[in-house]
């Protein structure tokens, strides 16, 4: 090892030691533990899949998880099958009936969304549930199939240790305002533009 | 039901029928099936969790999946435990040794990244693997712990039906150029700013 390399190594160590001190101080400064209201929105991919990753993480920690699908319940998804292997630790409710342009029946869509919200409230009241995913709730709110104020009031009244993840494009500003953590999935590049079709295990 | 409501319902049906026609035509126009190179980057949360969601989806479809963690292998994560229940359908390799400011040893970090890349190549050569997650590979590339051109050449030479997901902030422009699908996770709001600490099942 040349002297230059040794100097370089020492500089790297010093720089990284400083960064670690900053990192440790930052971690130590956060003391609050609370159930988070998390929103995954934006036009890019990854909103539902990131929620599923959190489901997996929570299951791995030994907790129970609830999932309510507000829109695409009619889809036969790979993840639903995979999660079945976790038995009663996952409460999965696929209550939406496909996207609204599939049903073409507004009254039916509204009824399905209301039923889904009742299920969500029942899961919020279940003290065994640690994480609740409200998949595509933003779509139901966007079309005014559910009353935004009522939804926000129910979310605010949930027990303090319950984490909730809401997914879907076009999250309402009032929901973003109420949330603790909001990620906007931006589409930098999409294979559909290159004529690639939806594929098993990726899109469904 | 009043006449106005019926008109409204009819308009809704017509609008949704048109949208469905556009949607169906769009779906029909995509004919290519190929293994995608997917990149999850950006400062927001959800990069790794969205990759995990794809893992779950692929497992649900009955396929085998490979995961190589380039950086945070020393972490004891909930998801690793959850995925163990899928047995040999998941090949999980946690090869990174914590973030580089934890090790403070550049030579060790580089050696760990090279070993991780060799493992990634072995998994790419395994015809049973349908999806390969290269978690935090972007960090390894950003610090030049791996040669970008060599990594891109290996990715380009993979078999045509293998889906690969690369995660981590600051994806290199050449990787974005090579990718089929790129999502930028933007941080709209983060609970760490409000003094909330990293919590079990959410951050780890």
From TrEMBL, chains A, B:
<keyword id="KW-0169">Cobalamin biosynthesis</keyword>
<keyword id="KW-0963">Cytoplasm</keyword>
<dbReference type="InterPro" id="IPR027417">
    <property type="entry name" value="P-loop_NTPase"/>
</dbReference>
<comment type="similarity">
    <text>Belongs to the Cob(I)alamin adenosyltransferase family.</text>
</comment>
<dbReference type="GO" id="GO:0008817">
    <property type="term" value="F:corrinoid adenosyltransferase activity"/>
</dbReference>
<keyword id="KW-0627">Porphyrin biosynthesis</keyword>
<keyword id="KW-0808">Transferase</keyword>
<keyword id="KW-0067">ATP-binding</keyword>
<protein>
    <recommendedName>
        <fullName>Corrinoid adenosyltransferase</fullName>
        <ecNumber>2.5.1.17</ecNumber>
    </recommendedName>
</protein>
<feature type="domain" description="Cob(I)alamin adenosyltransferase N-terminal">
    <location>
        <begin position="1"/>
        <end position="27"/>
    </location>
</feature>
<dbReference type="InterPro" id="IPR025826">
    <property type="entry name" value="Co_AT_N_dom"/>
</dbReference>
<keyword id="KW-0547">Nucleotide-binding</keyword>
<dbReference type="InterPro" id="IPR003724">
    <property type="entry name" value="CblAdoTrfase_CobA"/>
</dbReference>
<dbReference type="Pfam" id="PF02572">
    <property type="entry name" value="CobA_CobO_BtuR"/>
</dbReference>
<comment type="function">
    <text>Required for both de novo synthesis of the corrin ring for the assimilation of exogenous corrinoids. Participates in the adenosylation of a variety of incomplete and complete corrinoids.</text>
</comment>
<comment type="pathway">
    <text>Cofactor biosynthesis; adenosylcobalamin biosynthesis; adenosylcobalamin from cob(II)yrinate a,c-diamide: step 2/7.</text>
</comment>
<dbReference type="Pfam" id="PF12557">
    <property type="entry name" value="Co_AT_N"/>
</dbReference>
<feature type="region of interest" description="Disordered">
    <location>
        <begin position="1"/>
        <end position="22"/>
    </location>
</feature>
């Amino acid at each position: 090892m040349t002297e230059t390399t040794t100097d370089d190594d020492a500089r790297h160590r010093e720089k990284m030691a400083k960064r670690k001190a900053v990192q440790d101080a930052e971690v130590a400064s956060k003391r609050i533990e609370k159930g988070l209201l998390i929103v995954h929105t934006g036009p890019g991919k990854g909103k539902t899949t990131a929620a599923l990753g959190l489901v997996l993480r929570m299951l791995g920690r030994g907790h129970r998880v609830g999932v309510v699908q507000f829109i695409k319940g009619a889809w036969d998804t790979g993840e639903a099958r995979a999660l079945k292997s976790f038995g009663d630790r996952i409460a999965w409710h696929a209550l939406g009936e496909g996207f609204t342009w599939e049903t073409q029946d507004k009254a039916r869509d509204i009824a399905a969304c209301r039923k889904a919200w009742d299920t969500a409230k029942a899961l919020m009241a279940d003290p065994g549930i640690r994480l609740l995913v409200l998949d595509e709730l933003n779509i139901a709110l966007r079309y005014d199939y559910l009353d935004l104020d009522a939804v926000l009031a129910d979310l605010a009244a949930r027990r303090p240790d319950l984490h909730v993840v809401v997914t879907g494009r076009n999250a309402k500003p009032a929901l973003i305002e109420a949330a603790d953590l909001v990620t906007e999935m931006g589409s930098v590049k999409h294979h559909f533009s290159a004529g690639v079709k939806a594929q098993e295990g990726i899109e469904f």
